[in-house]
Amino acid sequence: MPDQLGEADAALWRGATTILAANWTGTHTVPSRTLYPHQWSWDAGFISIGLAHTAPDRAWRDLRSLFEAQWPDGRVPHIVFDPGVTERDYFPGPTFWAGEGGPVGSGRGNGGRPNGNAGGTPDRTFSAPAGTNGGPARLSSGIVQPPVHALGAWTIYRRAPGHAAAEELRWLYPRLVAQQEYLATARDVGGAGLSAIVHPWESGLDNSPSWDEALAAVPVTPDVLRRYARRDNQVVASKHRPTDEDYARYLTIALSYRDGGYRDADLGPRHPFLVECPGFNALRGAAELALARIAEVVGADPAVHRARAASITRLLVDRLFDPETGMFHPLDVRTGRRNPARCVNGLLPLILPELPAVQVASLVAVLESDRFGVSARMPVPSYDRTAADFDPFRYWRGPVWSNINWLLWRGLRTHGQVELAGTVRAALLDLVRGSGYYEYFHPGNAAGIGSPAFSWTAALTLDLLADPDPPA
């Protein structure tokens, strides 16, 4: 625990540490014990950042556990399933993602289908060192989540450098590069250099208004919710979760991708959801910058990663920025139209240090406007407060999320917005101090919503307490 913490912050630190210990399984950290009993991809990245301050060995193990399930084409699945958890405890589980072709597993010669591909051929082969994905099959989903893992790995190393930590980076580096290569090539469906997500779940912002227009065009598979029963709204209040209509489309999109063998080569003509998300691609750029730092440690070329980050930044500005709204907006690859909703993923390019000053000033103005209204009392909501369909309870359609505010805090610091960054940090810590380590929070009364004792909220609270002035 940092020496400078006062009594209230020391209590906050102890509470966060206790939650991360309680959610540790021995090989990885679950997001929560109530709703999320497996390992989630971007959760693992954020969790490793908190564990870097208290248990770096567990932080490294968390990332190893996730990347041991990496597919041969380089994709890192959004869920790695715990074989000790029964199918009835979480949906959609391994059986859903497998379909009729058997278990979706990672690796070669391990009992899983090569590339999880239902008879299809992988677009790219992950040529990792011998033994990378050996041992028992790791059952997983077939989609991805934002690549925050390089940032996590660099944070762990920065907090506790040394020979052992450098060895961990050497193990992770080729796998992190393969992850980035997969996103840069197989998912460049629009051909412009930005990655497309094939499902709203890949963005991490599942039911954000960012996807409403693209989702509306998805033909719902008849009776899909009769064939597949939801579990989330049996654990958490249904008014806090995506609607049945949205969920039916989520399942339809997932079934389309699954039944196409998780094949990316011809997504354009056959897959019903293809969107370039500004948040997802900004995190791709941030990952390249973290990889540049890691490359310097492991003896690789950092210039390649810096060039890729610069290219992603330029493409985001050219392709997804709207001068009229002053924000970035997702682009539907199928229609060529940008979604007009003002959502928090449109602010995330702030994390890129080479974002031009014009866009930085514009995003800061949006953050300080009535639409997002960051203040000493409340951090940034997930959606425009003034929108007619703003919903303070329903997941990514209004509530406040700690991981997004943590990213914005870092981005503001990066661009010299020290005072505003301090406001975001203080408001977020006060929110957790007053309401607990919830999955997300009501943007008006600050009540905790979703799962309690949530791991990334605890982990990022530790980072906020430990690093009030994070390095670039």
Write a concise keyword list for the protein shown above.
three-stranded antiparallel β-sheet, Mannosylglycerate hydrolase MGH1-like glycoside hydrolase domain-containing protein, 472 residues, two-stranded antiparallel ribbon, mainly alpha, Glycosyltransferase, globular, Glycoside_hydrolase_63, 18 helices, 4% strand
Task: Note down, in words, how this protein is organized.
There is one protein chain. By secondary structure, this protein is mainly alpha-helical. It has a single domain (7-466), classed as Glycosyltransferase. It is 45% helix and 4% strand. It has 18 helices and nine strands. The chain has helices at 7-22, 41-54, 56-67, 94-98, 149-159, 163-185, 200-203, 212-216, 224-227, 232-235, 244-259, 267-270, 278-298, 302-320, 357-368, 402-414, 418-435, 455-466; strands at 39-40, 79-80, 275-276, 321-322, 327-328, 331-332, 337-338, 440-441, 448-449. It has a three-stranded antiparallel beta sheet. Strands 1-2 form a two-stranded antiparallel ribbon. The longest helix has 23 residues, at 163-185. It is globular and about 60 Å long. The two termini are 22 Å apart. Mean pLDDT is 89; it is low at 107-136.
Question: What is the CATH topology?
Answer: Glycosyltransferase
Biggest β-sheet, characterized? Answer: 3 strands, antiparallel
Structurally, how many domains make up the residues? Answer: 1
**Count of individual beta strands:** 9
Question: Given the helix and strand composition, which structural class is it?
Answer: mainly alpha
> How big is the Rg?
20 Å
Percentage of residues assigned to helices: 40-55%
Principal-axes shape call: globular
What is the helix tally? 18
Instruction: Estimate the strand proportion.
Output: under 5%
Average pLDDT score: 89
The helix-strand sequence is HEHHEHHHHHHHHHEHHEEEEHHHEEH
The CATH architecture classification is Alpha/alpha barrel
Low-pLDDT stretches: 107-136
Distance between the termini: 22 Å
Top-tier CATH class? Mainly Alpha
User: How is the largest sheet built, in terms of strand order?
Assistant: 3-6-7
Family: Belongs to the glycosyl hydrolase 63 family.
Keywords: Glycosidase, Hydrolase
Protein name: Mannosylglycerate hydrolase MGH1-like glycoside hydrolase domain-containing protein
InterPro entries: 6-hairpin_glycosidase_sf, 6hp_glycosidase-like_sf, Glycoside_hydrolase_63, MGH1-like_GH
